[in-house]
Write a structure and sequence with these properties.
Layout: E1 8-12, E2 17-24, E3 30-39, E4 52-54, E5 61-63, H1 81-87
Antiparallel strand pairs: 1-2, 2-3, 4-5
Amino acid sequence: MWSHRGSELFYRNASGNLIAVKVNTSPTFSLGGTTVLFPAAGFASNRFNPQYAVALDDRRFLMVRPLKTGTPDKLIFVQNWVQELKSK
């Protein structure tokens, strides 16, 4: 994913680490140094689509981490939640 400033690319390497690489666009496109930001192997990953979001300040990331529980996941659906909220 591109940083919001447009000066870095973020990606996951084969070890699952989140990497930042500097991008230079002038005078030609080239890549600068890479930095391992943090180990992210425990977070959800998809080979072709990033499974994280980058904060507007490019310093924080929202990632999905699967829970390892013995119980199946539950989906709770609340209809008319605005009215329920108002009643509370």
